[in-house]
Write a structure and sequence with these properties.
With 159 residues, the chain is mainly alpha-helical. The protein has seven helices and no strands.
Length: 159
Amino acid sequence: MGMRNDDIFRILRDLVETLKDASVGYHLAAGAEVGGEARKFFSETSRQRDRFARQLEAIGSQYGEPSRKSETGLAGRLHRGWQHIFGAIQTEDTRAILAECERGEDRTRESYEDALAVPIPAEVNRVLASQFREIRTAPARIRSLHEAERAGSSDAAPR
């Protein structure tokens, strides 16, 4: 027996919220005083997570009521691993910002692993697996930025 539509919708809605949080977190990080490579990564990843969220919202509408826009302000919305990004940005410490991005990535990875571990329809599984392949590249890029920061690369250091 397959999953009920409301269960599939709930899984997709949770992933959409996780992706939206990541998009906002990376967007905020891109606006911080960080070097060009870090800013580029944060900006690209923010756009990617937003695109993935919109894709899952479209799929989710086939299984339940479309999600409503959040009425909560930005600070109230950020959770799921991204709640400390504001503090890291205020320090203007690239390493602290990268550490918060790693924490957020852990939450995103866990969310996708959980979703892919249940018997969702094949077409939904294909989309999630494809997105997850791309998402899994972020931790390596963050580690690379960390290494450049530790090595004193002028491109990764705060301005």
